[in-house]
Amino acid sequence: MRKRLSVAKAMVVLGVTAMTVMSTGVAHAATSSMHVYHAAGNVAGTVWFNSGTSNMTKGRNSFTVKDVLCNDGWTVYAQYKKSSWNNPLVGWRYTDGVSCTGGPRELSVSISGDVSRQQFIWRGCKQSESNLKVECEDYVSDYLD
Fold first, then answer.
1. Which member of 23, 64, 71, 78 lies 3.0 to 4.6 Å from 108 by CB, making a disulfide possible if both were Cys?
2. In angstroms, rounded to a whole number, what is the distance separating the alpha carbons of residues 73 and 54?
3. Phi, psi angles (nearest 5°) of residue 2
4. Can you tell me whether residue 61 is helix, strand or coil?
5. End-to-end distance of the chain based on CA atoms, in angstroms?
6. Separation between Cα atoms, residue 62 and residue 122, nearest integer Å
7. Across the chain, where does the E strand assignment appear?
8. Digit-coded pLDDT (tens) for 13-26
9. Strands of 62-67's sheet, edge to edge?
10. Which segments within 3-68 are labelled E, that is strand?
């Protein structure tokens, strides 16, 4: 019984944490961006989110991910959660990653077509190409339109 209570308590804490992130965060402009940093403070990559039709050359409700530090051994990508962001049963989604070490340096991907306005959260991340370690920035709140 103690184990079930611990799991239930953990789920409540996770839900409250996600609600705090969402309720305190103000949605950004139609286009927002985030740098993904290395521990030393230099920029590994940049992730942009283009809400609605703000940049149709990249696609409706799209992410653009760019590796800006070649040969650093890291792949840059975006992590996001839409549709019931506070429901622990709704999984996190990821864009493909980019690395200018033997691959494309930039990519754009649409994550949603025309939808009723809904809030979601996202962040930029990087993954080590050698040991698969993942490091992410803090979540931000935005809108799908």
1. 64
2. 32
3. -60, -40
4. coil
5. 44
6. 12
7. 31-37, 43-50, 62-67, 74-81, 93-94, 106-110, 118-128, 134-136, 140-144
8. 344 344 434 433 44
9. 31-37, 43-50, 62-67, 106-110
10. 31-37, 43-50, 62-67
Q: Do 61 and 90 contact (CB within 8 A), yes or no?
A: no
pLDDT in tens, 33-68: 999 999 999 999 999 998 877 778 888 899 999 999
Task: Round to whole Å and give the CA distance between 122 and 126.
Answer: 13
pTM over 0.85: no
CA–CA distance, 121 with 141 (Å, rounded to integer): 5
The confidence score (pLDDT) of residue 69 equals 93
The pLDDT, as a whole number, for residue 79 is: 96
pLDDT at 118: 84
